[in-house]
Amino acid sequence: MDDTADIDIEILKECTLCPRVCRVDRTRYIGMCTAGRLPKLSNIVLHKGEEPPLSKGMGASAVFFSGCQMKCIYCQNMGFSQRGVGFEITVEELACAFLKAQRGSASTLDLVSPTPYLPWIIKALDMSRKCGFNLPVVYNTSSYERVDTLRKIEGYMDIYLADIRYTDNQMGMKYSKVPDYWDIAQKAVHEMYRQVGPFDEERMKGLIVRILVLPNNVSGHEKALEFVANLDKDIPISLMSQYIPHFGAKEDEMINRKITKDEYESALDKLIALDLDGWMQLDEKEKITTFGVDWRCSESDIQKLVTEEIEERERSFNG
C-alpha cells in the first residue's frame, strides 16, 4: 500500500467524490450529501449485528458518518443520513477515534457510508496506522460509488460490504432519488471485486454483497443474485429480511409493509439454486446489538494515545 492514497482535500473545492458529481465547493457550502468541510459523525458503537465474521467478540466498531449520496425514502437512519445530525471533528480526532476503537476490542473498523469523507478518512488511517492501528477496515456502502474514487482508495480497505439495493434504475430513482443506481452499482461492485476478490474469513479480506429483500420484488433481488453468481459464486451473500417501512415508505403502496415469509423464502430459494452461500437473516436477533464507545477525543487524549501506541510498538520491537 502507498503511504498516501491519490485523494486530496482539494477535491472538496469542486466535489466529485460520488456519482452525483455535484461540484459544490464544500469548503464553503454543503454538498447534495449534506457533508461540508470537516468530518461529521453521528456516533461510533460496538455493533454485534453485522455479518458474523465482521462482528466477532465485542463486535464491529461501526463509525456512522453523517450524510449520504443516496436519499432512500425508507432509511432507518434518516436523522444523520439525510438531515445532517452529528458532530464535526478534526482529522486528528478521527484518527484518535480509530485507535480507541481498537483499544475497545473491536474486531473490525466498520465505516458506514464513508464516501463524502474519504479524504479525511484516508489521512486518519495513515495517522492511526503509524501509531499501531491494525484492525481490518470495512467499507460499508450502498454501492452508489464512482469507480474513479474507489480506485483512489485501493489498498486502504480490507473488506467491501456492498449493498445491491435495486436492479432497475427506475426503482432507484423512485425510492432513493438517484437516476442511474443499477448502472453505477454494477461497475462499482466489479471494481470492489477486482481490488479484493471474494471475502475470505481467514485473511479478513474481500467482498461481501448485501441484498435487502423489499416487498413486491422492488429490490429485484433475483436479478441481483444472478449478477453476483455471474461475477463469482464464491462471493458470500448477506440476504436481509429486516425491512421496515419508515418515513415516506409508509405512503407508498409497493413498500408500505414488511416483507412476507414467502417473499424471503423465495429469495433464499434463488440463492440456493444459484449455488451461492452466505448468511440468512434469522427471525430472532439479540435485543441489544449495539454498545456505546467512548470515542470523543480531547487534545490530551490524542497525545496520550499516540504516545502509548508508539511506546507499545517500541516495546514489541525491542522485546
Straight-line distance between termini: 27 Å
What is the strand content? 5-15%
Number of domains: 1
- Count up the helices: 9
Shape: globular
If classified by CATH, what would the architecture be?
Answer: Alpha-Beta Barrel
Poorly predicted runs of 5 or more residues: none
Note the quaternary state here: single chain
Radius of gyration of CA atoms, rounded to a whole number: 19 Å
- Per CATH, the superfamily is Aldolase class I
Structural class estimated from helices and strands: alpha/beta
How many E strands? Answer: 10
Order of helices and strands: EEHEHEHEHEHHEHEHEEH
SSE blueprint and pairings:
Blueprint: E1 40-47, E2 60-65, H1 78-81, E3 87-88, H2 91-103, E4 109-112, H3 118-130, E5 137-141, H4 147-152, E6 159-163, H5 169-176, H6 181-196, E7 206-212, H7 221-231, E8 237-240, H8 261-273, E9 278-280, E10 290-292, H9 299-318
Summarize the structure.
The protein is an alpha/beta fold.
